[in-house]
Amino acid sequence: MSTARLITSSLVLAESYALLRRTLPIHRAIDWLEQLLASSRLEVVYDTPEILRRSLRVLARHADHAFSLVDAVSMQVMQDRDVRAVFTFDRHFEIAGYAVLPGASTSP
User: Fold this and answer.
1) CATH class of 6-100
2) What is the pLDDT of residues 40-71, one digit of tens each?
3) Is 8 in contact with 42 (CB distance < 8 Å)?
4) Which of 6, 61, 83, 92 has its Cβ near the most Cβ atoms within 10 Å?
């Protein structure tokens, strides 16, 4: 049985850490982050000036929705790697045409 490789961006990790930090002691939030960074299953894509520039085009294409920069960077990373499915609770990915993995959709 093969295990799926997971991809995220450094910006998603930063958002996740900030969310955890609101409810957990700092050492637990740091431990969580260290475990993720040590995982061989997780690829962390760090934003670059080029990714950020291309992400601005994602924001412009979806100007009628309130996509965050983190959303746009994530979508650009997904596009770069030809990823079409995402585990998220953010409906913006459905709006952008990505398949949301079962159980993660926020749509009624």
Assistant:
1) alpha beta
2) 999 999 999 999 999 999 999 999 999 999 99
3) yes
4) 92
